Amino acid sequence: MAEAVLQIFRGDSKGGAAKECHVPLAPGMVVLDALHYVQAHQLPDLAVRWNCKAGKCGSCSAEVNGHPRLTCKTRMDALPLDKPITIFPMKSFPVIKDLVTDVSWNFRVNKKIPPFQPRAGAEWKFDQKDVDRVQEFRKCIECFLCQNVCHVLRDHGKKEEFGGPRFFVRVAGLEMHPMDGASRAALLRKELGIGLCNITKCCTEVCPEEIHITDNAIIPLKERVVDEFYDPLLMLVRKIRGAK
How far from 130 is each of 58, 174, 179, CA to CA, in Å? Predict the structure, then answer.
């Protein structure tokens, strides 16, 4: 029976190293299956976060051969087997143990975003195209792969100044809803730091739900912030109103 060689990170917040394991291959096997085999036969204390094994809970995020992926959707036969397959925790978040990371920072960012606020006196009637526009953003499973691959968070560690692509998706779902009456432009500009995003589209590339994060969420939100704070006509109007 063919085997795959895995190099799995073992460690915690203090450090660690890769542990080599050999796993027999089976038809249809995904990386999460291989990790379960390792737990059952070699490393019973290996810490792995997972839940649905159907690509919908977002729990099993990891870096497979250096790429952020859901281990339950990454097939073993799609990976090169002529060299060891590396499985490491997401780099952008602190390691708790082995492949499990502390993603609680994301939920603190989420609390900053004002919820849906219906427009006063508006008629609840809108076109299907408006429904379709925001429906895409509801597909997010909060796997945080987009947060992990984002260079602002991953390479520069700007968690105090930047919200990250997942929360630009959430804001877009609210801002573009035809019945929402709130403006979150100031939040995007200041607390979520959308100006730090330089449109590399790396977040879109890793999204398992194929949400067009950059084109459909980040760029339109950037345009709203520019219109709100940098449009010269609006700046003149605000200046006149302020003088009065």
Answer: 27, 12, 10
